[in-house]
Each structure stands twice: as structure tokens, then as C-alpha cells.
Amino acid sequence: MTKDNVPDELRRLIIPLPTEGDVDEILSPEDIEKRFGLQGKRKADAMGHYTTCHWIVVERKGVGHIDTAIDQLGVTFNAARMHGLDVRYLLIVTSGKWGKLGQRYEQQRSDKRSPTKHILVNKSTRRGGPVRIQGVEIDIWVIKSDDLSDYWKNNRTTLNQF
């Protein structure tokens, strides 16, 4: 669906990246299901297509469900790539407070690798290594849902380095 026909809640998940141009298409979970044949499977909450032809996949989850979020991103990422889409960005919008106990992942500050200034790292690797999805090492950007409005307000036109 075009970005104008999308509910505001879904539209605000697709963060602006001015070097990619503006988003011209946003896929809802239903659209993702139909387009990639993922009926009855876990899938991401949204996908956005930038005018440069790159895609972003977005998942919303509480911090206690990061493994599930990564699984859903992975299923959608793999399906989109199998359909020839150039998925370059993955984003998890989190809610809740990050804890240490029992989590395999943590947020790591990274001003250069993420416009959200945080990436998800795997704590089981030395010094917090990248997350692997479908055998591919990829940065997963992280932002707290409470920070999403401020991100939009402050960064709409200042992300030229990404």
C-alpha cells in the first residue's frame, strides 16, 4: 500500500533515512503475508520501501521477547530476499526496560552504524558481536518505542551519514 493509505501507527515505524529518499510503500503484516506466502508463519510488523529501492523490515516487541523479534525479522528478511527485494535495514522497536538476566542480546551504542544510535549485539560472542540472520551478519537497529516520536522530530533531515 502507498504510504498515504497506511494507519499512522504503522507509518511511524518506518523511520526516515534521507539518503535513501522518502518511503513510497509500506507493507502491513497482512501485506507481507500475502506478498511472500507467509500465511500462518511469524512475520515482521512492517516493511518500508525507500525510493532508492532498498527496504527496511521492522518488528515491535517487548524486551523480554527479543529472540522472537529476531526470528520474525529473519523469516521476513529471508522471504523478501527470496523474492528479489534488497533488504538493507532491520529495526526492532522495543518496549520495557532492558535487563541483564537471561538475555542473550543487549543494546550497544553506535553513532556510526545506526541512525537510532543503538544496535543489537549478541552477548554470547566476545565483545558483543553482530547478530546473524539466516547466516548473514547484519546490524539490527534498536529504538525504544518511547523515543520514536523524538527520533522523528529531531532526525527527519539530519541522517545524511547513513
Main features:
five-stranded mixed β-sheet; 162 residues; alpha/beta; 4 helices; 23% helix; globular; single chain
Going by helix content, strand content and strand pairing, the class is alpha/beta
- Strands, total number: 9
Helix content range of the residues, please? 10-25%
Biggest beta sheet attributes: 5 strands, mixed
Shape: globular
The strand line-up of the biggest sheet is 1-2-3-4-9
**Beta-sheet strand percentage?**
25-35%
Mean pLDDT: 80
- SSE succession: HEHEEHEEEEEEH
Head-to-tail CA distance between termini: 25 Å
Count of alpha and pi helical runs: 4
Rg to the nearest angstrom? 15 Å
Tell me the number of structural domains. 1
Poorly predicted segments: 158-162
How would you describe this protein?
The protein is of the alpha/beta class and 162 residues long. It starts with 7 loop residues before the first helix and ends in a 7-residue tail after the last helix. The chain has one domain. It has 4 helices and 9 strands; from the N terminus they run αβαββαββββββα. Helices cover 23% and strands 31% of the residues. The strands form 3 sheets. The chain has a 5-stranded mixed beta sheet with strand order 1-2-3-4-9.
Compile the SSE list and pairings:
Elements: H1 8-11, E1 23-27, H2 29-36, E2 46-50, E3 54-62, H3 66-82, E4 86-95, E5 105-109, E6 118-122, E7 131-133, E8 136-138, E9 140-144, H4 148-155
Parallel strand pairs: 3-4, 4-9
Antiparallel strand pairs: 1-2, 2-3, 5-6, 7-8
